[in-house]
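User: Hey, quick favor. My workstation is busy. Could you predict this chain's structure for me?
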Amino acid sequence: MERELNLLQHRVVVDGPVVRIAVGGEIDLSTADELQRVLSDRIGAADAGERVEADLSGVEFCAAVGARVLVEATRAARARGVELVLHPRSAAIDLVLDICGWQGEVQPSDPRPAGVVRWFRRVTPPIR
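Assistant: No problem, here it is.
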């Protein structure tokens, strides 16, 4: 019995001039193209001055390719005069943006993350 795995879920709600996209699941190499398509379609359909909101609080995992999609979508929106808001963001999104050094490339998130992720850096003792 074959079962289709749906690693990325999204729902789009249009409320007047504001488009809301709720994203959940995992953003990785197998799902990044789908997220890129959804964001590009909505940004492309928006007029200058309109707002596209992406609720990323349901994202449980985000690889660097997903962060790249978010940064590129932000740049594309700015070029069209569209406001892209990535809020709220899960701790997984904030973590990968931070690791990649791209936090400043996207609009600031709420200082209260949707979840907590702790990670530790391994420090190798000096050789004597």
